[in-house]
Every structure is written in C-alpha cells, then in structure tokens.
Amino acid sequence: MSGNDRIKWDQVRKWVGRAGLKTNWKPFGMPEVLDPFTSRFADVDPLPKWDIPQKVMISTTITGAFFSKRANPHQPITTDEIRASAEECIEAGAPNIHIHVRDDGGFNVLDPQRFHDVIAPLRAKYPEVMFDGCLVAVTDEESAAMEPTMKSGLFDALPINTTAICCGDSMFFKAPHVVIEKTRLAQEAGCKPVMSVYDDGDIDNARRFLVESRLVAKPYYWLILPALPGCSPMHNPQQMVDALMRMVRAIRDIDQDCFILVCAAGRASTYLATLALLLGLHVRVGMEDTLWHFPHRDDVIKRNVEHFLQMKQIAALLGRELMTPAEYRQAIGLPARSSFAAEKTHG
C-alpha cells in the first residue's frame, strides 16, 4: 500500500460494494448530451468563436543593423545579397519587406543610393509589394539625407523607435525631438509611421509624444521588438509569455483596435512569433532580429526565405491566411497604391 496510505480503503470498498462504479449523470438537453451550437434553455452560443483575424501579415526583415557574418556566416551584407534575399522572400509570397543597408565595412548606414539600388529594381518587378526601412541617422550627413530618402517613393512605412536603451553593447537613444520630427516627415512623405518599441518605457514614450500629442492618426501601427539584450527580457518561456502579454496589454490600453506586429526576436525567435499568432497579432521574421530558428537549439537561419516559409506554414496550421499587399495597405490605413507613386520610384 506504499504511496496510498492516506486513502481510507475500507470506506472506498464499502461504497463500491453498495453503489458500484456508476456515474451520476442526468442529461437535461436530450436528444443532445452537449449541443455545441445552442442550449435547450437559452438562445446562446455555448462555444463562441474567438475574435482572431483570419488574415495575418508576415513581414520579412532581411539584415537589420545588429548581426555580422561572424555571428551568422549567412547574413546578407552587400547590396546584391540584400536584394537577392528580399527577392527570394517576395517570390515565396512575402507581402512586405523590411530593408536596412550596410556600408562596405558591414555597418548599418543611411545611404540613399544603396537603398535605391536594393528597393527600386524590386519595386519595378513587384509593384504591389510593400517596403519599409529603418532610417537611423548617426552622422550629420545621414541626418541631412533622411528627408530626401523618405520622399524618394521607396518606402510605404517607416519605423519610429521611441526608445532609450542599451541594446547589446551599444546605446540606442532617440531624443523626443528626433521622434517627433521623424514622424512628421514620414507622414509628409506619405509613409505610415510604425511606433517601434523594445520595452515598456518605449510604449509610454510613444503614448506621450505621438499618440496623445495627436501627431499620429488611427489606425495606430505598433511594432514590438523584445528579447534582444537590453530589451524586454525573454530568457525562458514564462518570461516570454508574461512580457509579451504585458506589452500587448499596455498597447491595448492606449487603443484596442490598433495593428500590432511582433518580431521573432532573439532566442525567443519562432516561439515568440507563434505566440503572437495565437493572440491574433501579426509577425515579423528574418535575420535582422534573430540568428536562430528555435529557442532551445543552435540552428542558425541560413536564408530569410526559410524563416518566412516556416512562419507561413505555422500560420496556416493555426488557420490564418497570409495578407496580400493590398490588404495590408488597407489594414494600416494607407490608400491604394497609385501609378504616380510607382512612376516616382522608377524614375
């Protein structure tokens, strides 16, 4: 009887002898024992459908600013590598591509010509595909180049990082005047500002400087990028769930109906993006935000299209369909693409 010494077996045997092993069960809804669509007693839906959007946007980010070929030998660095990787993703169905460009040393750069060399040929070949890019100016020359680059017609949306963090071994800080003016210029150029947040404080910065100031208009567009060093930590599954739920709740407190994109970032990677899909959110995948396919393994991403197709398959298994570029434009409040915008880009 070891392990069962707290069971009063004499009482168990007595009642088994009297009543057997019958279950007390009396259905009141016959002929259905459990009707999944209604009740015999009230006209209600006992199992209502979840409010999950059928369509999902899966953005693909090609290289970003963080990782070198030392970290991942497959990282796209040159203009040709970035463009070729983007085209692979577009051919696989990606509706939106997020672009950074690198200089000859492999460092992130705000270079109008390099952006044009990557995006313009893709715009010409795939005119419906959406493009956004992180224009981060760290020199006077780059600062001067920001406005004409925005107005080039290359971009549909532009992230606005409302942040002040130590990301890895570097300080990443956007002063309030930079946040506000960059947002104004983006909207003046016809680009959707994407409020990009790395931790809770960033959400409040966006609320203060962009939302409550009424500088941005609905539908609000948020991008959550946690899980990298210095961002909202996600070092285990519980941290991942708690942190994402907290950040999403903070954003929903500002506006229930906004568009939220969650990056498959850091070690959390595909697990984080899958959680976002379960919550009815949208996702960004690719080699800007992570090296790895999975949190518990060291398999590095060799091609951006691998990561895109992996997430597309997960979304399909969860019953969600990929947005078209036109559906994405509508969801974030941009007008339908005009032939003028296409001509401006190609000219």
Annotate the secondary structure layout:
Blueprint: H1 9-19, E1 55-56, E2 58-61, H2 79-91, E3 96-99, E4 101-102, E5 108-109, H3 112-125, E6 130-133, H4 140-150, E7 157-161, E8 164-167, E9 170-173, H5 176-188, E10 192-197, H6 200-211, E11 221-224, H7 237-254, E12 259-263, H8 269-278, E13 282-286, H9 304-317, E14 321-322, H10 325-331, H11 339-346
Parallel strand pairs: 1-14, 2-3, 2-13, 3-6, 7-10, 10-11, 11-12, 12-13
Antiparallel strand pairs: 4-5, 8-9
Helix pairs in contact: 2-3, 2-9, 6-7, 8-9
Would you mind describing this structure in some detail?
The structure is a single chain. The chain is of the alpha/beta class. Helix content is 38%, strand content 15%. It contains 11 helices and 14 strands. Strands 6-3-2-13-12-11-10-7 form an 8-stranded parallel beta sheet, sandwiched between helices. A two-stranded parallel sheet has the order 1-14. A two-stranded antiparallel ribbon has the order 4-5. Strand 10, helix 6 and strand 11 form a beta-alpha-beta unit. Helix 2 (79-91) runs parallel beside helix 3. The radius of gyration is 25 Å and the shape is elongated. Residues 339-343 have low confidence and may be disordered.
